[in-house]
Amino acid sequence: AQKVTQAQTEISVVEKEDVTLDCVYETRDTTYYLFWYKQPPSGELVFLIRRNSFDEQNEISGRYSWNFQKSTSSFNFTITASQVVDSAVYFCALSEAPRGFRGAQKLVFGQGTRLTINP
Amino acid sequence: DAGVIQSPRHEVTEMGQEVTLRCKPISGHNSLFWYRQTMMRGLELLIYFNNNVPIDDSGMPEDRFSAKMPNASFSTLKIQPSEPRDSAVYFCASRVSGENEQFFGPGTRLTVL
Fold it and tell me: Is the Cβ pair A104, B100 closer than 8 Å?
């Protein structure tokens, strides 16, 4: 069975601090995909990043960076120099890639981490 | 380009009533997903379709829930009869087969009194 664990329920930091959101996953599949989504107070789910299980290269996008480590089954997300607009609930998700289907299928979400950036 | 469209955005109904949620996926997307978000259970998949065919409905809570996708541009999720514990935000998402990102609609907030 697939499972995603986001152990940090809530994080509160002061603006400009760096913050890392943890994500640990479980799967028996050798091919899978990992995602991060952001849910701001308005409620929509915004896609941030996708990683496949064969690509362990870390990625940086502006103030956002992601660290994927298969050895520890982790896919952590770091926001550098946080801003108030980063306040949201962040979800890590896992998707299998079964044979016969191209690309990822259903997403299994973690419980989310509520991030509050205080001015 | 229009994203995933869901209607209504908010629905308040009384226990026992039938509720129908609607979703229009992004044009050209051939996979559609229905998720439910609650405080207790978080985000969970209810059902998904590939090319209008239901692939996995194991997340549908019980027989009161049903979903259809009569064509590539429309899907419904129906609850009959509704119960207070069905109160949640229901998200629809779509993607292109062969791609990995699922794009989510704005959600329908359902309140069953």
Answer: yes
Print pLDDT tens along chain B (113 aa). Answer: 689 999 999 999 999 999 999 999 999 998 999 999 999 999 999 999 989 999 888 889 889 999 999 999 999 999 999 999 999 999 999 998 767 788 999 999 999 99
Listed residue (B88, B79, B82, B80) closest to B107, CA to CA: B88
The SS3 assignment for B86 reads helix
Chain B partners within 8 Å of A107 (Cβ): 33, 35, 43, 45, 102
Is B75 within 8 Å of B49 (Cβ atoms)?
A: yes
CA distances from A116 to A11, A36, A83, A90 (A): 6, 17, 9, 11
Task: Decide if A106 and B107 are in contact by the 8 Å CB cutoff.
Answer: no
Q: Which of residues 48-77 of A touch B (CB under 8 A)?
A: 50, 52
Residue A88: CB partners within 8 Å, gap ≥ 6?
A: A38, A39, A40, A41, A114, A115
In terms of Cα–Cα distance, which of A89, A85, A93 is closest to A25? A93
Q: What is the dihedral of CA A34, A3, A40, A70, to 10 degrees?
A: -30
Does any CB of chain B come closer than 8 Å to the CB of residue A7? no
